[in-house]
Fold this sequence. Notes:
The chain is of the alpha+beta class. It has helices spanning 11-21, 47-56, 59-65, 91-96, 105-118, 164-169, 243-248, 255-261, 303-317, 325-354, 359-370, 374-385, 399-403, and strands spanning 3-7, 26-30, 42-45, 67-68, 71-76, 82-87, 101-104, 122-125, 130-136, 139-144, 149-152, 154-157, 176-188, 200-206, 209-216, 221-229, 239-241, 267-274, 282-283, 286-288.
Amino acid sequence: xAKILMAGGGIGGLATALAVARQGHRVVVLESRDTFxxxxxxxxxxxxxxxxxxxxxxxxxxxxxxxxIDGLRFxxxxxxxxxxxxxxxxxxRERFGNPxxxxxxxxxxxPLLAAARLAPGIELRTGAAVRGYRRxxxxxxxxxxxxxxxxxDALIGADGxxxxxxxxxxxxxxxxxxxxxxxxxxxxxxxVPAELRSNTVTLWAGPKWHFVHYPIGGGEYLNLAATRDxxxxxxxxxxxxxxxxxxxxxxxxxxxxxxxxxxxxxxxSWVLCDRDPVERWTDGxxxxxxxxxxxxxxxxxxxxxxxxxxxxxxxxxxGTEAEEFEQRFEKFAAERRGRTAATQLLARELGSRLYxxxxxxxxxxxxxLAALSPEELHRxxxxxxxxxxxxxxxxxxxxxxxxxxxxx
Length: 408
């Protein structure tokens, strides 16, 4: 049994800890914060996420907290006219073997944390921020922010987009600031007029902005997320933002989405960031997973999904012998790089070419989307939503992802 250090105790870190501990290893999760918790609001989970959650043994718990969505609606945010709708019941569920759902982040995180606390091979430490590492002849020493040192047979960097492990391993500097600001609010569904409620993820697209809303918390709350391509150049996280500042940022919003935006309370804002795909994920017995390996913009709704896939794949490959970790980590990276790179690049493309065009480009986009049948829409997402990691079923990622790795 090896001792494996996990830098970071978010969704990706805990999921990977569970998958690795199943192979008989001891896992020490080193979390920088003073408590194990999850920030943020609603997230979307495709069938690929549920396949991974089932493999981790917590699929039922997450399903009990989820809202199962009937469809994804794409609306013209200025005219209020419907553009396209992808149904997510019936043929979709039959095709992909699981539902599409929306949850609060804590609804995924809480079952992961509960399972980790019950797992005899997992030790959870708070206030243990990993700031770097040193490879030794037979393992790795993690350097903590408080000056402490923790020795292990391997180190998994699951410490997010600002990963210190990635900073040393890849050395690609600060995250890339997208120039997009997102404003988030969660409100009680009881405050939403009945005619504005729907069991869908609805996206209103306008020139250099879009607005998304969907139910979470078993349908008791409505998650609001409005994004503006405002050229922001400084990364900020969860900054309290006044209601009028949010409303003023979307003057072109049509009547119906405007009514929903006006319901928002206690807004917070983030400036979205990501990183370029990279070739290098490993350094001997050190490996990156989740946002430390492939941070992506929100527009493909796959950040948490891909982190969960990472966990299952790494758990299946890690083996039992510490002497084989370096080889097995390299195999893991080789298996995951193309798929995650394609997803990162897709997220960027969606943000720039699908969600934010105006004028003639928006008209052409609307015509293109309106012409697609449900079957055609399902085929377009099959490579993402149809993956069943742990069962050997992963559709080949588009060529763009495999060709776009940045050499580091």
